[in-house]
Prior knowledge:
Layout (H helix, E strand, L loop, with lengths): L6 E5 L5 H11 L4 E5 L3 H8 L13 H8 L4 E4 L2 H7 L2 E4 L19 H13 L3 E6 L7 H16 L5 E6 L9 H6 L4 E4 L3 H11 L8 E4 L1 H32 L3 H9 L20 H14 L3 H28 L8 E5 L14 H11 L3 E5 L5 H11 L1 H5 L2 H4 L1 E3 L3 H5 L4 E4 L4 H4 L3 H5 L6 E5 L6 H6 L2 E5 L7
Parallel strand pairs: 1-2, 1-4, 2-3, 4-5, 5-6, 7-8, 9-10, 9-12, 10-11, 12-13, 13-14
Helix pairs in contact: 1-3, 4-5, 5-6, 9-11, 9-12, 11-12, 12-13, 13-14
The protein binds uridine-5'-diphosphate-xylopyranose (UDX) (2 copies).
Amino acid sequence: MSFEINNICCIGAGYVGGPTMSVIADKCPNLTINVVDINQQRIDQWNQSDLSQLPIYEPGLKEIVSKCRNKNLYFSIDIEKHIKSADMIFISVNTPTKVKGIGAGQASDLKWIEASAREIAKFAEGKTIVIEKSTLPVKTAAIINKILQESNTEINNSDREFFVLSNPEFLAEGTAINDLNQPDRVLIGGDNQEAIDALKNLYLNWVDENKILTSNIWSSELSKLIANAFLAQRISSINSISALCEATGADIKDVSLAVGMDSRIGNKFLESGPGFGGSCFKKDILNLVYICKHHGLDEVASYWQKVIDMNFWQQKRLSEIIISSLFGTISEKKIAILGFAFKANTNDTRESPAIKICRDLLEEGGNLQIYDPRVSKEMINHELQKQDENIKNNNDYKKLWKYCESVQQATYGVDAVLILTEWEEFKNIKWQKLSKSMRSPKWLFDTRSITDIEEAKSAGINTWRLGNSEAI
Ligand code: UDX
Ligand code: UDX
């Protein structure tokens, strides 16, 4: 049996579905790609003519959308129609950590995956390849398969056939287009060789064959989870050493460089910072912990739990350092927060370390002036409120932070500047000039090691850099 692929549908027009389908449309002009979503507002944003207003910011994305949209790339809420016409369906919906019930706080909530499978079961026609793109707990494919196969038995339609594959996404936000254009590897898991070949042929339009790995579906699902767990583990490892550097007189930048030059270790993902954020790392490790516990592997579970604990501790200790440096109280003091996104080059704030750090500072009564080049006031407000109902109910809280439109505005009249995201524009801050608008004594806390600390010092600012022991 061979597959003829002409129409592709992707359920979920988010950070994964949007860029991934845009690149596929760009690389495969003969295919028609329909990205569908239940969120009308999100689809409207993908369709609006002002490309600077796309729902997600990703370097290089708007150029591709401008080239392919309404030619072979379409965004729509008509889920039924596009599932019906699809030969291949990607599921890219969100899979957040469960907030209640069994496995709350650890297991992934698969309700959206299940809902997508049910929609496919209802509307699909003919032979359809169904692909898990979202990162999922091992064995989720079995759930999707069961829903699809049993729907077939029920409606007794012998023309319909489903083939479930796992094809996890490895893109990182901020570099998504590049990661998709030049992937380190493409992983396809499944048990039907023809279906695997059909997906492989799609990638062969731009990816070398030796970079396309195939495996059974469970190895593919687990590999994605483990890749994220290993990446997060490196960050927690280097962050734990940043605290040791501060205590011993070593410098984390020197240590990272020396350690990373060992080719067995490699130099990537060794930058210490305020802790990892993003929609995946925490969720995926919690999920891994849950699966390990489920299988009675308690030691394995607690090993991985430590990666999360270290990440939380890093955020907590940063706010404590700031408070103790500012003479133990920040009440009535103004602090500029530079950067709210979880990393540079994205407008995504999910699990951003800035959320906890800002919240801790707000709870201590600090006045925050927050600026991020890509994150809106509404989003910051949403994140700060979402974290804590007590804050939400406290009317004073909104008076304690102010949204700013520029570095200049955010740093005006402040006692301290706190850099949380490594945006390019923060690297070029002229401290001599900026220091004039700060109140004395002045402090700079650089959690990303990106600024010219010497210039800041010479401008009369007390400086602190993560992983460096020089006293403030
Ligand atoms: C993804 C992944 O798919 C997830 O597994 C991964 O771990 C994080 O990244 P992402 O694209 O970042 O999700 O999520 P998001 O930006 O929230 O987009 C998901 C979209 O799916 C949303 O626009 C939502 O409206 C849509 N959705 C959700 C549907 O269209 N149908 C549903 O039933 C549920
Ligand atoms: C991650 C994975 O990299 C990607 O393969 C997967 O598909 C989704 O999850 P993403 O979360 O978008 O991608 O970004 P990533 O670049 O991995 O950064 C995650 C967090 O780690 C950010 O908060 C970043 O600032 C932090 N980080 C990264 C560090 O603190 N130090 C580093 O050296 C690298």
